[in-house]
Amino acid sequence: MIRRDGLLPRLGYGAAGLGGLLLLMEAVPRLGLVDERFLPPASEILATLAAQLGTAELWIALGETLRGWAIGLALAFCAAVVAGVVIGIVPGLRALTSSTVEFLRPIPSVALVPLATLLFGPSLGSTLLLVVYASFWQVLIQVLYGVAAVDSVAFDTARSYRLSAWSRVRHLVWPTALPYVMTGLRLAAAVAFILAVTAELVIGSPGLGAEIQVAQSSGAVPSVYALIVLAGLVGIAVNAAVRLLERRVLAWHPAVRSEVAA
Predict the structure, then answer these.
(1) Spatial separation of the C-alpha atoms in residues 78 and 42, rounded to whole Å
(2) Is the pLDDT of residue 168 over 50?
């Protein structure tokens, strides 16, 4: 049975924290501590956001951002799962590729901005390049950890019974690695959204980031803050959706069951 008594206090604390932040953002410019030209009051920011939500342009930009996020995340997730399982189960392949992975993984995705601009210009392709590169490593590393966590005795037993490679992956490797895979997906989803907005902001690809850049260039400070708030809200929604998916997929896992029961 799912207990709700712990959920309501957490939601209450979160709402209180958000309310306190809004009050602070309202008071600071009103009291003259910060010039309103650089930090408009929270009420003005929210009013601007409400007005922009009634325009088709904002929803089109949001759709472009979510499209780049979803396609890039899907490509990175599928490629990383396949690569991670293959590298993890093929003898010697992990040792052979470890130096390459450790070399490529720390490279910041923003360092690829000139390459993305050169190859694709201000288009969806540039966004996908950055999103896929950043998200791929988040999932790959977790998949490698998950495959490494498979019990060696169970793996040798499955091999001695002459189970096919597909059967070993399906019935032994995948259930063990799945919690790690979902952790990688949750991390990658947040990183993918950040990189999608970054690509739009820096390169000019269509989306929320491009709208923020246009608002900043035109001096529409309330619009800049309103779009930033919207990006934050979408990020929260993305994280909540992935966590919900994680709990649904791992409903059988003891850790998730104890978390839900608590």
Answers:
(1) 41
(2) yes
